[in-house]
Write a structure and sequence with these properties.
Largest sheet of chain A: 2 strands, parallel
Number of helices of chain B: 16
Order of helices and strands of chain B: HHHHHHHHHHHHHEEHEEHEEEH
Shape of chain B: elongated
Structural class of chain B: alpha+beta
Number of helices of chain A: 6
Structural class of chain A: mainly alpha
Distance between the termini of chain A: 37 Å
Oligomer: heterodimer
Radius of gyration of chain A: 12 Å
Strand order of the largest sheet of chain A: 1-2
Number of strands of chain B: 7
Strand order of the largest sheet of chain B: 4-3-7-6-5
Strand content of chain B: 5-15%
């Protein structure tokens, strides 16, 4: 059984983030990561890209994403805020 | 009396005493120590059986509510005791109903923690809209516990009842409903938070969270060990199958659970269904009110009888050995196209027909048996104005084996006469 962990790490592949917290996918999709709804994308790009890189790709503000996740009760780490 | 029996009797007396005290107003805390002292190391199943016996028995006033209270006492004892649940590898496979329940419980615990963190971080003078939105999100997510509870209640409880563990499901269901009400309270408080304030929300959430966490614990330390002990693999397969339509909570099973030795299971399943079909004679001893699995659900024998006698058709069934076995009685005798006599039950088909139609009847039976035909239909008018429609259909087992023929006969004259529409009440 998985250990309960509400920490979202922005520096690991998105695929691993969703594996650990499947429910977070919906939030990410609503935030703008539309391709995540596509299983194939999640399995390919999702394994290569982390949330920092992904946010850049969809031209989203990584700080806004951090806030959104915190507002949903997650702890957040590894955020690349320059 | 053997030593074991003596011990059992003693425990039974103590449990009766504890429950009676709860019944007369003692709090769970007051009986905890005594419970721990005597029931350390006693299995959940044993305790639940004793509770069951006490609820059923007439010489005490113990009720479900008392046992519900004891639930917490009971859970507290196990909290310290059940670390090593033992080797349960098959049930730890993804997709197995137990694995699904436990994974959901983890996900629900995680959601509870997120909500707790959010609620801690809000105050009346700084109601951050983003946090309120997140809180709503997370509560909606947690609200999916309804799927988990429904699956437990509609799919797992019936199997427990089948094995005569009727008390634990009833008790648990009662607590489930309390938890549902507590959750509804939380949602109401959140909706009105601008008027009623953060403290009220916190209080409601704490009340809910407490019972909710207790329930997770009860499932894992009492229900799961109990069902793991009594359910067989067929039961689990049925449960896994039936689970899908109720949906899941927060996490979907990663894969479908496929037990090893499928051939064996299929064979067992085939045996199982056959024994159910051939059991009716044994079923004579079943109480009319016993729930029996039928198709997609359950019916009692009485319900089956009533329903069959309400279907507006003449139903007749002959079995695979051509023996006339059953007819229903929904149509008054004077309106029946084919009047059947109870005394004909048990006779072979070839003895029930006049010689002139016998050849045709036997040919039809043969064609349906061999699969040349699955169905035959006939229709004709009667002098009394009826327009009779007759269908003969082969009844086959899940594996295709011939089980007999069902004949259904209906007067369709009233249906043929319908025109236009009627969409309101008579």
């Amino acid at each position: 059984m998985k250990i309960i962990d509400n920490t979202i790490d922005f520096s690991i592949p998105v695929y691993d983030v969703i594996k650990q917290n499947p429910e977070v996918k919906q939030l990410l999709v609503e935030f703008g990561f539309k391709p995540l709804t596509d299983k194939a994308m999640l399995n390919t790009a999702g394994r290569l890209v982390n949330l920092n890189q992904g946010a850049k790709k969809i031209k989203a503000d990584v700080t806004a994403l951090r806030k959104e996740l915190e507002w949903n009760g997650y702890e957040v780490k590894g955020v690349d805020e320059k | 009396m053997t030593d074991t029996n003596k011990k059992e009797q003693q425990r039974m007396n103590i449990l009766t005493d504890i429950l009676t005290r709860l019944h007369h107003g003692s709090t769970p805390d007051e009986v905890q120590a005594e419970f721990d002292q005597h029931f350390q190391g006693v299995s959940a199943i044993e305790i639940s059986l004793m509770e069951h016996q006490l609820i059923e028995s007439d010489d005490n006033d113990i009720t479900f509510e008392d046992v519900m209270e004891l639930c917490n006492v009971h859970a507290n004892l196990f909290k310290n005791k059940v670390d090593g649940a033992g080797d349960i590898s098959e049930f730890e496979k993804p997709g197995h109903p137990i694995h699904v329940l436990k994974t959901e419980n983890q996900a629900m615990r995680a959601a509870l923690m997120r909500i707790n963190r959010l609620i801690k971080n809000i105050s009346d003078d700084a109601l951050e809209p983003g946090i309120l939105r997140g809180l709503k999100n997370q509560l909606a997510l947690l609200g999916q516990f309804e799927h988990h509870y429904q699956r437990k209640e509609e799919v797992i409880f019936p199997v427990m009842e089948k094995y005569n563990h009727t008390a634990p499901p009833k008790v648990m269901w009662g607590v489930d409903d309390q938890i549902r009400a507590l959750f509804a309270d939380v949602l109401t408080q959140l909706d009105s938070i601008h008027d009623t304030g953060v403290t009220a929300l916190k209080e409601r959430f704490d009340a809910f969270s407490h019972e909710f966490t207790e329930m997770i614990f009860k499932e894992e330390s009492i229900m799961i060990p109990l069902v793991l002990d009594i359910f067989n693999e067929d039961d689990w397969l049925h449960i896994a199958e039936d689970s899908e339509r109720f949906g899941y909570t927060i996490v979907e099973p990663e894969e479908k659970w496929v037990p090893e030795r499928i051939d064996f299971v299929e064979e067992k399943e085939a045996d199982h269904s056959e024994s159910q079909v051939e059991k009716p004679l044994d079923l004579n001893n079943l109480p009319d009110t016993q729930e029996i699995p039928f198709g997609q659900g359950f019916l009692t024998l009485k319900e089956v009888r009533k329903i069959l006698d309400l279907i507006p058709m003449e139903l007749t069934f002959i079995n695979k050995d051509d023996v006339f076995k059953y007819f229903n009685n929904s149509i008054p005798d004077e309106d029946k196209a084919f009047l059947r006599a109870p005394s004909a039950i048990g006779r072979e088909v070839k003895n029930c027909h006049p010689p002139k139609s016998l050849a045709m009847v036997l040919k039809l039976v043969e064609d349906l048996r061999s699969g040349v035909k699955e169905k035959e239909q006939m229709w004709f008018e009667r002098k009394n104005g009826q327009f009779i429609h007759v269908t003969y259909v082969a009844v086959r087992d899940d594996d295709g084996a011939y089980m007999g023929i069902l004949e259904y006969v209906q007067d369709i004259a009233p249906l043929k006469e319908l025109t236009g529409m009627k969409r309101g009440l008579s």
